[in-house]
Amino acid sequence: MSAVLPQSKLQDVGIRVLLTAPGMLVFAIFLLLPLGYVAVEAAEGQGRGLLLLVSSRSFWTGFLNSTVLGLSAATLSLALGLGVALRLARMGHAARTIWLFVIALPLTFSGLIVAYGFILAFGRAGFVTLSLEVIAGVDPAAFSQAVYSPYGLAFVYAYYLVPRVVMTLTPVILNFDHSQLAAAESLGASRRRTLVDILLPQLYGPMMSAFALVAAVAIGAYGTALALVGSQVNILPLQLFTMVSDAGADFAVTASLGLVLTALCSIVIGIGEWIGFNRAHRSRTDE
Q: From CA 24, how far away is CA 62, in angstroms rounded?
């Protein structure tokens, strides 16, 4: 029996290696290899590109704007997505499936389509802007300029970030033991108190993971911002796009900016996953 057990373990290891090999190969070819090439370019001249990058005021302005954009878009998306997920969890299976399909549609649109749609709605001659001018006397020029700011971009980004939050939180809420809420309400707790004191604390880990995910997406995205504001808003992805498009750009600086943006998004996601893991581990320990 002792001779058979190691053999079975070796077979299990071999099967796992074979199953993971295609994924690891794709991961290496399309992420590790390009990232390694960029790192080599950035290290040229003993990190000269990184020193030039961090000494630029434009970089720090873009860094600040990207951080504000990511946090604003993630906060708005989490608030809206959580409300939608709570409502979907109370629906029947058929209705919930239909609504999830509708909510997921924005994920299929390109950044250009999203930007064009918001221009038609909230631009200088957009139907929402002109309607507010007639109804409330809003200045169309001042109102439309709000879209072309980091906060306006956060509002636009929420259009396709909210579905990501909904897709992440809805299964968690569906698997939640709702008998806890019923027991609290039977003891006299209000609906709001049961959500604040019982449901939301147990959703803290998934909520932080969803927040980090959409924040990283907002920080790294450039297609919608490029189509909507061009170079009017200084954010890191648009800086990188401008450098890549410029044939005379310094490759070392461009590669350094790419690594900084990759590291920033990775750190944001890592923090969210770390918080979610620790929260889940603490919940299992408490049980």
A: 34
